[in-house]
Amino acid sequence: MSFTLAIVGRPNVGKSTLFNRLVGKKLALVDDQPGVTRDLREGAARLADLRFNVIDTAGLEDVTDDSLQGRMRRLTERAVDMADICLFVIDARAGVTAADRIFADILRKRADHVILAANKAEGFAGDAGALDAYSLGLGEPIRLSAEHGEGMNELYDELRPLA
Ligand code: GDP
Ligand code: MG
Fold first, then answer.
1. What is the mean pLDDT of residues 106-111?
2. Ligand 1 site, residue 131, Cβ cutoff 6 A
3. Quick check: 122 and 151 in contact, CB under 8 A?
4. Residues lining ligand 2 (ion), CB within 5 A?
5. Which residue from 11, 19, 26, 7 is spatially nearest to 91, judged by alpha carbons?
6. Is the pLDDT of residue 35 over 60?
7. Which ligand is nearest to the CA of 14?
8. What is the pTM of this model?
9. Beta carbon of 53 within 6 Å of any ligand 1 atom
10. What angle do helix axes 98-110 and 70-82 make, rounded to 10 degrees?
11. What is the pLDDT of residue 5?
């Protein structure tokens, strides 16, 4: 295990789908209902020749655009503290939400290294959201489709120098 990557972000952006793809097993729950998976899950990830530890975060409560529930915040902070690198995931189809901005603030203050990812970016539906993500001030987003396995080479390019 060369490093630990925490996948963070509000519910329903596709964190567990990405976790499952990296770990290659259905360890994390994926659900169509926002906020259904709850817990911190760790797994051994493989991405081409990279081997690392990955943490999936989930929150009991749904996150609205106006509030970020304490449990979700605490879980995220725990994951950030356990991790060497945070992969901050937003939903490119939904665009940047108020909750995303709260997570961005937490990460800016607390995380050593943040990679921004705009997920659900398959096709063209995610174009606007991916552009919007620049406004988070966390650099250029990589465009992912966790569900379809797109953008994994860009994720690799981001992780490789840090391994
Ligand atoms: P989490 O709450 O952030 O862990 O999100 P999940 O991984 O549970 O995914 C939430 C929903 O988004 C599920 O219905 C997934 O199938 C869907 N989803 C995840 N990744 C993608 C993607 O790349 N593209 C699309 N279109 N949907 C996705
Ligand atoms: Mg999840």
1. 94
2. no
3. no
4. 15-16, 37, 58
5. 11
6. no
7. 1
8. 0.91
9. no
10. 40
11. 97
